[in-house]
Design brief:
- There is one protein chain.
- By secondary structure, the protein is mainly β.
- It has one domain: Beta-galactosidase, Chain A, domain 5 (Distorted Sandwich).
- The protein is 6% helix and 46% strand.
- The chain is built from 1 helix and 13 strands, in the order ββββββαβββββββ.
- Strands 1, 2, 9, 10, 11 and 12 form a 6-stranded antiparallel beta sheet that branches. Strands 3-4-5-6-7 form a 5-stranded antiparallel beta sheet, covered by helices on one side. A two-stranded antiparallel sheet has the order 8-13.
- The two termini are 29 Å apart.
Amino acid sequence: MNWKSITLLFATIVSSVTVTEISAKNVKIDTQNTSLVLEAEKGKKLRHLYYGGKISENDAAALRSASGKIYSAYPDYGMITLPETAIAMIHSDGDMTLDLVVDGISSTHDNGADITTVTLKDTHYPVVVKVNYKTWKDENVMETWSEITNNEKSPVTLTRFASGYLPIRSGNVWLSSL
């Protein structure tokens, strides 16, 4: 399927939310009981540092140095072989490589919800991906979706496109859905 732009949606139930930029690199999105921490340094890959029980800003700031394996928060196909990616495409010239890096972070407030957007840009092709995190304090919900924009002169083919990506570390983990 050839699409110029696509918006996808994925919702996860969590608790009340606060968004905190704890450094120039890290973004922490809090609910009443959980924290999501992303490493979002401009020009580098968007990394998932933590999702779990609520942590302090000091703990979040120490995550990068204390973490073992760091996972991509929105893995792309092409530069590194990964078992699963969130996005893959065939460019208009036939190349299948993506190399998405952080271009910027923005936060807005809309109708009682906080929205954090991390903008990713490909290092070679004019492709932009916005990964959005929307949270409502009163509804106890965190929603994530991606917006993929092709600025190439010809259509691209999306072969894989996820609304979000949440790596789950091994251990005593239970996964359920509604």
